[in-house]
């Protein structure tokens, strides 16, 4: 990524100011938001972040500049992006929904405030000293809830009760998430009488090859591990599951909105809102060390009725009754 190059959401334009006017006005503080998702899939959650900033008194282009670095699954760009942000001494580095981005930021600076949201224990990741008193320069939101993968697998089983063989698609490049999924999900599968098969993929070609394996092995349903790269490849995944008629469960609503059968996980809009509030508080002078790490308390189930009908599945009334949203 070239110096100062970043992608903004629709409507964001950078305009160079004349030297005279620049000299008359103090520079706005810069908030750098770094995420491994794409700009396209992040419009809803980025709007939640922006709205929360507004609620704390900060409005883009008026009293704060927000840089959006959407890396679209390109993990290899994290270190160079962080190095550039540190060199330019931005006011706050924000890394919503990303273990790797948060760790890259922490490795790059011990002084610039960092607001993260991570799916693993932030203490174990080395981001904070403890949840109540983070210490150092980082704080944020922890959406790691041990029961979520189990609940999602149970919901998938309720949708496809005849399923016996379930595969889990894992990105081995995302080590912390992969390790947790490989521990939690097979154990949950055994508890409800399912046979679990693991398939790995970290590129488009590997995803294609994984589905060839699934079809060859007669897999009845698919559990897609939470992963930024899989979110960026949601259209490919949805196309393949439709082609091979494989019911699939995902972790965030954008995947169900793209055509996935269902998603269940943390309410990402609320998560990004909370990150925005902390960012605003830090801009006002609060130190990250004094802001306890927040814990995820809101979860959402999204069902895609159109996909269910295409797969010949009847969604049980009990599942429909607890869905936060049903896509017709």
Keywords, separated by commas or semicolons:
328 residues; Rossmann fold; 2 domains; seven-stranded mixed beta sheet; 13 helices; 13 strands; elongated
The main sheet orders its strands as 7-6-8-9-10-12-13
CATH architecture of the largest domain: 3-Layer(aba) Sandwich
CATH class of the largest domain: Alpha Beta
User: What profile does the largest beta sheet have?
Assistant: 7 strands, mixed
Helix content: 25-40%
Instruction: Determine the mean pLDDT.
Output: 89
Measured distance between first and last alpha carbons: 40 Å
- Can you tell me the CATH topology of the largest domain? Rossmann fold
If you compute it from the alpha carbons, what radius of gyration comes out, rounded to the nearest whole angstrom? 21 Å
Individual helix count:
13
Order of helices and strands: HEHEHEHEEHEHEHEHHEHEHEEHHE
Give the beta-strand count. 13
SSE-based structural type: alpha/beta
**CATH level-four homologous superfamily name of the largest domain:** Response regulator
Integer tally of domains: 2
Name the beta content range.
15-25%
Taken from the alpha-carbon principal axes, the silhouette is elongated
List segments where confidence is low: pLDDT < 50 over at least 5 consecutive residues: 1-24
Structure description:
The protein is of the alpha/beta class and 328 residues long. The protein has 2 domains: 19-144 and 267-298, Rossmann fold; 147-266 and 300-327, Response regulator (Rossmann fold, 3-Layer(aba) Sandwich). Helices cover 40% and strands 19% of the residues. It contains 13 helices and 13 strands. The protein has a 7-stranded mixed sheet with strand order 7-6-8-9-10-12-13, with helices on both faces. Strands 2-1-3-4-5-11 form a 6-stranded parallel sheet, sandwiched between helices. Helix 6 (175-191) links the parallel strand 6 (165-170) and strand 7. Helix 2 (43-55) runs parallel beside helix 11. The longest helix has 17 residues, at 175-191.
């Amino acid at each position: 990524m070239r110096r100062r190059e970043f992608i903004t959401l629709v409507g964001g334009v950078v305009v160079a100011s004349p030297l005279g006017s620049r000299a008359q006005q103090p520079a706005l503080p810069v908030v750098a938001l770094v995420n491994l998702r794409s700009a396209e899939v992040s419009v809803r959650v980025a709007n939640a972040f922006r709205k929360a900033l507004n609620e704390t008194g900060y409005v883009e282009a008026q009293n704060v500049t927000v840089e959006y670095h959407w890396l679209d699954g390109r993990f290899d760009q994290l270190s160079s992006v962080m190095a550039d942000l540190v060199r330019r001494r931005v006011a706050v580095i924000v890394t919503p929904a990303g273990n790797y981005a948060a760790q890259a930021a922490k490795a790059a600076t011990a002084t610039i405030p960092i607001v993260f949201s991570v799916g693993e224990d932030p203490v174990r990741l080395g981001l904070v000293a403890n949840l109540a008193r983070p210490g150092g320069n980082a704080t944020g939101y922890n959406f790691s809830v041990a029961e979520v993968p189990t609940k999602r697998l149970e919901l998938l089983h309720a949708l496809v009760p005849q399923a016996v063989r379930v595969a889990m698609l894992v990105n081995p490049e995302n080590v912390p998430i992969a390790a947790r999924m490989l521990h939690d999900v097979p154990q949950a599968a055994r508890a409800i009488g399912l046979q679990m098969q693991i398939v790995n993929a970290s590129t488009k070609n590997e995803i294609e090859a994984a589905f060839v394996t699934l079809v060859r092995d007669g897999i009845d349903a698919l559990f897609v591990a939470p992963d930024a790269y899989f979110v960026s490849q949601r259209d490919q995944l949805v196309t393949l599951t439709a082609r091979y008629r494989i019911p699939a469960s995902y972790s965030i609503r954008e995947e169900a909105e793209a055509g996935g059968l269902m998603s269940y996980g943390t309410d990402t809009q609320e998560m990004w809102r909370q990150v925005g509030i902390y960012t605003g508080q830090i801009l006002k002078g609060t130190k990250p060390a004094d802001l306890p790490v927040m814990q995820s308390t809101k979860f959402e189930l999204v069902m895609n009725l159109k996909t269910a009908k295409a797969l010949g599945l009847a969604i049980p009334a009990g599942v429909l009754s607890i869905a936060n949203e049903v896509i017709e």
